Amino acid sequence: MNNPDLRRVRGLAWAGVLGCVFFLVAAGLLQLTRSDLDPWQHTLSFYLHGPGSLWLCLAYLLLGVAMAAGGRLLCRLAPWPSPAGQAVMACLAVAGVGLVCVATGDRLFPPDQLSRPGLFHHFTAYCAFAAVLLALPVQALRFAAHPGWQRWAWTATLGTLLCWSLAWLHVAGVAWLPRGGGQKLLIALLVSLLLAALLGLLHRLAAKRGNSRDNAGTTFSSDANHHHD
């Protein structure tokens, strides 16, 4: 990989990291400052209206960009295109578009017409959730297939099991799991897993920076040159 390409990859990774961090901070602060909403009972979409809602709307948009960037970078773990990598990239791109639609749709239409309850909001939100949940197990298998990423495979596998469990509990409406609290825990875990993967990419890029000139023409995951997804 030449230096301009390395800089572009690093820039995408940092954009994804900043999008994830901004979302977690903005959503977390709103839980503490919105006294008109019950953080355990109200889902996160309720915070897209009222005081501070513009910050959360921006956070959704940035997280959508982070999802798309993360999918593009994770696809490049292998030095050649693969169905598994392209599936992860496509799923995270769909999730990113879904988040953008949730944020913009909730700002453009009154809550009683669209958001709560509203077909457009629910469709785009569920598409985003479903796309990320589908990407998780595929990416966990991809981590396990690449040398140097096996330790991330354990994290991704455990995160996948937790996220799928929380998603089913949320959909089933289990009484002991508050609807708002369960949804926010699932969202925080999904975003944290993406953030961890992006930080892992940045760590490996930093390790390769010193010898990038010697590796011109290779991919940023050249340690996987002999492994297929």
From TrEMBL:
Query: Upper lineage ranks?
Result: Bacteria, Pseudomonadati, Pseudomonadota, Gammaproteobacteria, Lysobacterales
Q: Does the keyword Magnesium apply?
A: no
Q: Which residues cross the membrane?
A: 12-32, 52-75, 87-105, 120-140, 152-173, 185-203
Provide the protein name: DUF998 domain-containing protein
**Domain of life here?**
Bacteria
Species source reads Stenotrophomonas koreensis
Which key words tag this protein in UniProt?
A: Membrane, Transmembrane, Transmembrane helix
Q: Any coiled-coil ranges, and where? A: none
